[in-house]
Write a sequence for this structure.
């Protein structure tokens, strides 16, 4: 199934379904061939030495598309991932998964939903203001779901 965000609206509530891609090793040439130049949301993970994935960040990408932003993070010469995400680990242990959506407002709602539940983020992302209730369901090929 295509990695895409869908939504269903009932009254003042919105129900999003996020179909994630499988995890992709964040390597510049792999990004060039596997990631589309479309808008969407992505999650960046770090694989530790015990082979456990740790969520580093979740972002929305609109202008430039996912390919452009992920290629910048994956570029070993730029070292943007190390600086951008404050990690001292090498970029070659980064993994990403993404889902496509063209609506900036939907991206805002999704990031709000996830940021609101994270204790380490005292200031949640701002939602679109269109709905009073936001619900998110994740579908992942490997049965890994984000605990917000």
């Amino acid at each position: 199934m295509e990695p895409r965000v869908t939504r269903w609206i009932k009254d003042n509530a919105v129900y999003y379904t996020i179909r994630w891609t499988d995890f992709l090793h964040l390597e510049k040439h792999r990004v060039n061939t596997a990631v589309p130049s479309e808008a969407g949301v992505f999650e960046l993970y770090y694989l530790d030495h015990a082979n456990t994935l740790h969520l580093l960040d979740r972002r929305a990408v609109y202008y430039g598309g996912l390919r452009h932003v992920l290629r910048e993070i994956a570029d070993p010469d730029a070292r943007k991932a190390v600086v951008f995400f404050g990690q001292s680990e090498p970029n070659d242990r980064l993994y990403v998964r993404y889902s496509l959506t063209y609506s900036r407002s939907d991206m805002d709602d999704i990031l709000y939903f996830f940021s609101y539940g994270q204790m380490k983020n005292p200031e949640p992302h701002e939602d679109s203001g269109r709905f009073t209730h936001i619900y998110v369901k994740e579908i992942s090929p490997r049965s890994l779901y984000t605990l917000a």
Observations:
- The chain has four helices and seven strands.
- The CA atoms of residues 43 and 58 lie 4 Å apart.
- Helices lie at 28-34, 65-74, 80-84, 104-116.
